[in-house]
């Protein structure tokens, strides 16, 4: 049995329709592969022809066990005051892709359009997706910094739009570092400028040369902000995010949680909250 990473490129959809919806639709996609699941951002204001242009990574084994080798794309309409509506789903069978990737090291399903199946089993609309599978080399681990040959002293630069924070340097822990630190960013929703995403850039602190880039991870937070504005607070629980290397391959993971709290009008920006047992950045 061989394992690797299956990268899904979610591009767009066209001709979506929801018979139970009233007015415009704000589509997003829930992607399922066996027990793994990812969710796209919400394409607000784009209606029945949304564009996402996002990438997601699943771990895959071949031959493996469990559910069939298929990717399921469940398209939903985000509603603010009621349950989200089901717009349809598409299925991509990837067994042949995995088998070819295990044999050759990599395999690709180019960008193609797949029909969307409605709840009543009729077809309406299409979704454009590409899939690539890359076999994990035997001498490659799931950890950070293998290519540097010696010990590494990682730290993380965290970017949200024009704001930036930097973690402490974890010395002596090598490829499996632990930080347990909290950082605070100011956020507005709806806002303008760059996309609603957190970028976590992982670096290796070097004493006598330029710090090395170990990889980065991206967390899309638009849905989090929208829910927090509506309810007062919202949370992304601690999850593991894949780390993308400079050559766009994947190696390792970073565990992060995110919470957004709407600012109460009578609370000033000078208020500082203590986080017992954690280190909090200045902002």
Automatic annotation (TrEMBL):
Checking Pfam families in the record gives: C2
The record ties this protein, via SMART domains, to: C2
Do you know which CDD domains this protein is assigned to?
A: C2_putative_Elicitor-responsive_gene
Q: Which domain of life is it from?
A: Eukaryota
Q: Which InterPro entries match?
A: C2_dom (IPR000008), C2_domain_sf (IPR035892)
Span of domain C2: 1-107, 123-234
The organism is Acer negundo
* Protein's recorded name: C2 domain-containing protein
Write out the entry's keywords from A to Z. Answer: Calcium, Metal-binding
Q: Which GO terms describe its molecular function?
A: metal ion binding
């Amino acid at each position: 049995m061989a394992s690797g990473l299956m990268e899904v490129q979610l591009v767009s959809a066209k001709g979506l329709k929801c018979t139970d919806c009233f007015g415009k639709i704000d589509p997003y996609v829930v992607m399922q592969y066996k027990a793994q699941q990812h969710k796209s951002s919400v394409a607000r204001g784009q209606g029945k022809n949304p564009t996402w242009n996002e990438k997601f990574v699943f771990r895959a084994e071949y031959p493996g066990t469990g559910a069939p080798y298929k990717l399921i794309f469940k398209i939903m309409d985000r509603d603010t005051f009621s349950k989200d509506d089901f717009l349809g789903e598409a299925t991509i069978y990837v067994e042949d892709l995995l088998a070819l990737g295990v044999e050759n090291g990599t395999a690709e399903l180019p960008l193609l359009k797949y029909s969307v199946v409605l709840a009543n089993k009729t077809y309406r609309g299409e979704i454009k997706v590409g899939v690539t599978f890359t076999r994990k080399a035997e001498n490659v681990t799931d950890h950070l910094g293998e290519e540097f040959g010696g010990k590494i002293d990682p730290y993380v630069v965290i970017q949200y739009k024009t704001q930036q924070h930097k973690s402490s340097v974890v010395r002596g822990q090598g490829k499996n570092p632990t930080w347990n630190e909290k950082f605070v960013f100011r956020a507005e929703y709806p806002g303008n400028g760059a996309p609603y995403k957190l970028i976590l850039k992982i670096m290796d602190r070097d004493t006598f040369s330029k710090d090395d880039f170990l990889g980065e991870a991206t967390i899309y937070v638009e849905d989090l902000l929208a829910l927090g504005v509506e309810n007062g607070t919202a949370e992304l629980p601690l999850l593991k995010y894949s780390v993308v290397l400079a050559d766009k391959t994947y190696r390792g993971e970073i565990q992060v949680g995110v919470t957004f709290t709407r600012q109460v009008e009578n609370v000033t920006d000078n208020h500082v909250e203590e986080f017992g047992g954690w280190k909090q950045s200045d902002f």
